[in-house]
Amino acid sequence: MFWKKRKEDHEAILHLEEMNENLKESFSRIRTDIEAVKGWLEYFQTKQQENDNKFKEIQDRMEELGEVVSYIG
Q1: Average confidence (pLDDT) over 10-35
Q2: Chain-wide mean pLDDT for the chain?
Q3: Cα(15)–Cα(30) distance, integer angstroms
Q4: What pLDDT score was predicted for residue 39?
Q5: Distances in Å between the alpha carbon of 23 and those of 6, 9, 12, 20, 46?
Q6: How far is 48 from 56, CA to CA, in rounded Å?
Q7: Mean pLDDT, to the nearest integer, of 7-35?
Q8: This prediction's pTM
Q9: What pLDDT is attached to residue 10?
Q10: Mean pLDDT throughout 7-11?
Q11: Res 71: pLDDT
Q12: SS in 3 state form for the chain?
């Protein structure tokens, strides 16, 4: 009876260790995924800023052209 209890305890410990390793691996993958998403967000934020700057330049040039056209006309 004593040996059976020790065997069950040992199996339970092995099962907990396996679960612990699985959790470590899962969280490692989650961390990797979060870093990838962070990278994409930074990329899109940079592209958005570049597009905002280009749009502002186009607006400024259109205003300048409007002033030239009104001066000519």
Answers
A1: 96
A2: 92
A3: 22
A4: 98
A5: 26, 21, 16, 5, 34
A6: 12
A7: 94
A8: 0.63
A9: 85
A10: 83
A11: 86
A12: CHHHHHHHHHHHHHHHHHHHHHHHHHHHHHHHHHHHHHHHHHHHHHHHHHHHHHHHHHHHHHHHHHHHHHHHC
Q: Supply 71's token pair.
A: 């001066």
10-34 burial, b if ≥16 CB within 10 A, otherwise e?
eeeeeeeeeeeeeeeeeeeeeeeee
Cα dist. 55→6, 45, 63, 65 in Å? 73, 15, 12, 15
Question: Can you give the pLDDT at residue 3?
Answer: 57
**Two tokens, residue 37:** 């998403």
